[in-house]
Amino acid sequence: MDETTARRFADVLWWGLEKARTGKYRKGDVILVRFDLPALAVAEQLQARILARGMNPVLRMSQTPAMELTFYERADDRQLTFHAPGEKELFEAVNGSIYLHAPESLTHLGHVDPARMGKAAISRKIFRDILDRREMTGEFGWTLGIVPTRELARQARTTLAAYSRQWAAACFLDDPEPVARWEEIFARAGGLKQWLNSMAVTKLKIESENVDLVVTPGQKRQWIGISGHNIPSFEVFLSPDHRGTEGTYYADQPSFRSGNYVAGVRLEFSRGRVVKATAVEGEDFLKKQIDMDRGAARVGEFSLTDKRFSRINRFMANTLFDENYGGKYGNCHLALGSSYADTFAGNQEDLDSREKKRLGFNDSALHWDLVNTEKKTVTAWLASGEKRVIYKDGLFQGP
Prior knowledge:
- The chain is an alpha+beta fold.
- It folds into two domains: 178 residues, CATH 3.40.1830.10; 209 residues, no CATH class.
- Helix content is 33%, strand content 25%.
- The chain has an eight-stranded antiparallel beta sheet, with helices on one face. It has a five-stranded parallel beta sheet with strand order 2-1-3-4-7, with helices on one face.
- Strand 12 and strand 13 form a beta hairpin.
- It is globular and about 55 Å long.
- The chain starts with a helix and ends with a strand.
């Protein structure tokens, strides 16, 4: 990556971090930067920006694929759930987090028992709970992005040069002022979310060639998105009442998760839970992920992307990009697992565990986005009895 591109990407990531936090950043704040080795150049740029702002960078390089594989192959149960001394204290103190994903392998854990990975994930959920709580009070914000690698390009069946061009275009890094472009998208999305949130929706009907699904938004919900949390991000989403999900969902885009490749996922829901799950590839892994905990078989997110926002027009072998696919018909995606507390349309401090359960916000160690790019129609059933098409052929139908 050349220095100009690394600098622009670091600028955009910092923009995202500032947008993603309700409270303001101040001198002395602690900013955690986690990165894969191929993203080192961007991590160096971020370190310089954090120091220049009088804040304290904490830099953490992720495990290499070989390290990760060795861990899951050799760790016993106590080692799988081990937490390093000081880790809880770090998460209680951190004010911002930037994660740079630059994978050198996407399938290296394909033969590892998913139950072992699930055990490790469940043990670390306490850290995500800490960050969720701090985010709700405005003390913490986060963003993430990817850096192109040969492995990503190979799995996307393209060259590294072509992959990098799509990545740069999607993040507006081919523009001399990428932050200004993101501000424009942010402003346009504001009007769209206001329109969606003005409707009293009792349920959403999603229909495509292979999808026939009902999603129930639930009480005290709001559509959010394009908030700085992901770079790039063009999706608008909510965390529905998981109890009202019924019907069939199909992910025509494959996904890579925990070193596994999964394609052709079909889910059948009844009374809010997955009652049947199949996949053309990776079915055993899919089923074991759904069995991870009580919430893993329930929905935590429903999302729509307008193709007028997104410049992504190809499979990128990375969920961050694939869940924001624009292409010919945009996309929707459904996430199994944990919900997002910031889709609560009320005082965040009132959303304790009891209120989450009452309103049907899902809780799980899993959060897995499964993407459908088919031509589709989404119809909102309003409290007034009216039916209104809100999304069709990749376009929101207002405002």
